[in-house]
Amino acid sequence: MTILDGNIVTVAMPAIQSDLGFSAPGLAWVVNAYLIPFGGLLLLVGRLGDLVGRKRMFVAGLVVFTVASVLCGVATSQGMLIAARAVQGVGGAMTAAVVLGMLVALFPEPREQAKAIAVFSAVGAAGGALGTFLGGALTQALNWHWIFLINLPIGIVAWIAALRVLAPDRGAGLGRGADYPGAALVTGALMLTVYAIVGAGERGLGATLVLGAVSVALFVAFTLRQARAARPLLRLRLFRSRLLTGANGVQILMVAAMFGFQYIGALYLQRVLGFSELMTGTAFLPAPVLIGVLMLGLSARTIGRFGPYRVLLAGLVLITAGMALLARVPADGSYVVDVLPALLLLSTGFAAAMPAVTGLAMSGALEEDAGLASGLFSTTQVVGGSLGLATLTTLAASRTDGLVDDGTALATATADGYRLAFTVGTGIALAGLVLAAGVLRPGRESASEPVKAEADSGADSEAGERVEMSG
User: Fold this and answer.
1) Domain Major facilitator superfamily (MFS) profile spans what residues (predicted)?
2) CATH second-level architecture of 4-178+233-470?
3) 15: which of 74, 192, 367, 464 lies 20 to 30 Å off by Cα?
């Protein structure tokens, strides 16, 4: 539900703009208002989840998110919708920041944990892919308000299930402190980073660089604070884990490519091929089906057999190949020939790569840091998605505008802009593949990496180690 809401508005944006009278720059804030608090608060609420109990944080987040969804659904003005989307982002952060830590605690046995992570990844990936379909279907069949109101029954069921099924956990206690000055620094830095990324196309390069410099300064101040604080919000030892740091870096690049594909792919179908909202959503429907089948049926078994490292590399190869196919989409293309093969490659690759990179990231954290590691992993997802969306859409728009100014037909110029974006997306995916191959290779231990983090990587990771060593 929370991931779905990150992109369910994509297809409904023209209807929202027409109904509420948004300007083109103002319309972007329907997405930005959700992403900025979502990405900015993940580390803080992840740590608070460790202190007050992850179940409490999760249940409270469900309530906040569901209530905010209803407010979005009944919004009658620009300000009300944007404010409600911001509250949605807060609730989304509260749930997303602790869910992986809860999974690790619920399923400590490595093989069962791999299955649980596969299910979690399948649900999240399906939510992201279904967002495009549901956004188109609900907008065309009813109206855009229902893309938010549909969260009410889902949220109520999830809230009841969480209260009944999840075991209570006490947490370490707020008495241990959450380093609130450090929390203010990192939350400000993350929010400013996401704000700088998602609004880069509107402000121009100079203003974006200034905002980036300020966010870097806040991150430096936060790091210095964590090195000296008695009870730091973020234990810097966390980054000594090659698995956790490397997997988060790979995820940023992988999600940047995939999120860019989802957004620009939908625009290509609508603006170049002339698809309606419902047709666009239906065109993306094979993705969640394929991802769900592969993640639930094969992912854990494949990782157990070959190890997460090999599965991750195979997935990244397929993602890179899918993006490369999209880099040749023509102005007179067709869905079956030019889009569907790439969609199938990308879905298969993501189904393989996402559970593998998730398992590697969480295996690099100690149990008491599970909530924080979960928040960090979710943060890199948001940053990667925002970075990919801002970079690729800005490149596509700039190329299209330049060609139109030179007299090129709009359809041809638009397709050329999207080809440039997909070409850059291919390079981003390839960079993720190179990083994974170089950093996450089994057996590449550094002297500074915690032994416990390596030991906690579980039987699945150890299987990959044994295969590599025997080779």
Assistant:
1) 1-444
2) Up-down Bundle (1.20)
3) 192
